[in-house]
Amino acid sequence: MIDVHEATANTPKLTKTLARCKPTEFxxxxxxxxxxxxxxxxxxxxxxxxxxxxxxxxxxDNATAEEREAINRENGKTVIETYKDRFxxxxxxxxxxxxxxxxxxxxxTCFVEPENIDNYEMADYMDAVREMxxxxxxxxxxxxxxxxxxxxxxxxxxx
Length: 159
Prior knowledge:
about 0% strand; 7 helices
């Protein structure tokens, strides 16, 4: 029988993340992440999961206050159900249909090559992700990138 404490003691710890690396390492790792993220985004197809707005019931101009409130409650339930369903679909696509690719992206943020994912404990990855999300510079960088993508997409589809 395997002693869990002994197995954990022999597992290496993650020592490098996007929050704790040299600038040149950060840039090189971001390129690796981007390359894998392109394939991951296509496979997971997040856009199709989140693309359409929920079908909400319009409020007639002549509706009474009670009717408006009832329609708003109904629409609120519709929104909650729609986003719950979307979250579950997204979860399935990320962790049921594409678990290796999802873990590979997580691993790359910790400078772990995909073939070495299982050399570390999941708790180490989660600690690393928490650390990165608490690092203002890392979050600001990825937020900036996301806003650039959003601007590019909105300009492209307005034309």
